[in-house]
Design a protein that fits this description.
The chain is mainly beta and about 110 residues long. Helix content is about 0%, strand content about 65%. The protein has a single domain, classed as Jelly Rolls (Sandwich). It contains no helices and 12 strands.
């Protein structure tokens, strides 16, 4: 069963540390010429996230099993693969090994 996301943030001038799910998901948020992004790591577990913006997620290393609202069944994404989640949606993620990701917001 997925746990609902909670966020704890520490801000620095160039980036923001985001801590979710009792530090099982950590990300560094930043802005650059591509816009707003974050890069992070997820420990093995089940998580549920909510979006406020469109998100493009790229798996850097590891694998994510993702269940989006409109998907008939969960889909596996691994190294170099990406998926998109529209704004104002909830999606569930199953992580079976430590996984690094990049998330770009629009």
């Amino acid at each position: 069963m997925a746990t609902i996301q909670t966020r704890h943030s520490v801000e620095a001038p160039l980036m923001q540390l985001n801590r979710y799910f009792d530090d099982q998901v950590l990300s560094l948020g930043f802005d650059n010429s591509n816009g707003e992004s974050s890069v992070g790591v997820m420990a093995p577990g089940s998580y549920e996230f909510s979006t406020s913006k469109n998100e493009r997620m790229v798996v850097i290393s590891g694998a994510l099993v993702v269940q989006r609202h409109d998907d008939p069944e969960p889909l596996l994404y691994s190294d170099g693969e990406e998926f998109h989640v529209p704004a104002d949606q909830t999606f569930a993620v199953e992580v079976t090994e430590p996984t690094a990701y990049l998330c770009e917001y629009s």
